[in-house]
Amino acid sequence: MEKKKVYHDLFVDFDDTLYDTHGNAVIALGETFEAFGLGRFFSDPQLFYDTYWEANIDLWSRYSKGEITRDYLIVERFRRPLSVGLGLEVTEQLCLEMSDRFLDFCSSKPGTVEGAHRLMDYLRQQGYRMHMTSNGFHEVQYKKLAACGLRDYFDTIVLSEDAGANKPSQAFFDYAFAQTGAKPETTLMIGDNMATDIQGAMAAGIDTLLFNRWQYDIKSGNPQAPTYLVSSLLDIKQIL
Asked: Which of 82, 105, 117, 130 is most buried, by the most CB atoms less than 10 A from its CB?
């Protein structure tokens, strides 16, 4: 892959682009299941896990679009899987307690996506200004950054809760430009999510690089296709 353009600023998604959010959450969800003794109510724990992930995907998609609040997401993503248990009284208080414990477990995990530290070392050596752009919750993201050792790579941390708007909205990217001083024409967005990272950045006039971790079917010539496409983080070194 040839270098296509000179960039000065990189907007970099964090969850599941650099930080292995899914992998760490799988471990944390199992720890939460055990901590609350949920085996008493589920003959098959997989039912709880499957229902959780189905709810989580739906709720984060709706949250990114501004359709639901953070508070609703926190409660509902545990209310749904708990509701399929037998003999369990599901209250808002239980959901909140479970969410707090789950987020504590999650945010303490150091796991990163393969190649994350080597890529960030390389990009720092190349002199790019790097800005984390995330819809993740404020207090959780800073704990994750500390746990995985990636905080010092970023010049700026841009979070949706501070912006008052989520990716992929124009308001989020307007806030990111204001906070970082980056210019759209020399900024590249790097992320793993087609909707929040890639399509949002394209609408804001930014070139995009999709880390195709989830194997999106990207058609050649599609006007919605990202500027660059890689299947591993270290492939980015061939572009930047």
From this structure: 82
- Asked whether the predicted pLDDT for residue 1 surpasses 50, the reply is no
Specify whether 31 is located in the same domain as 60. yes
pLDDT band at 152 (very low <50, low <70, confident <90, very high): very high
Choice between 89 and 220, residue whose per-residue pLDDT is larger: 89
Do 141 and 213 reside in the same domain of the chain?
yes
How many folded domains does the chain comprise?
Answer: 2
Do 127 and 144 fall into the same domain?
A: yes
pLDDT band at 42 (very low <50, low <70, confident <90, very high): very high
* Length of the chain as a residue count: 240
Residue 198 belongs to a domain with what CATH number? 3.40.50.1000
What's the pTM? 0.92
Cα angle 72-60-191, degrees, rounded to a multiple of 5: 150
123/119 Cα distance (integer angstroms): 6
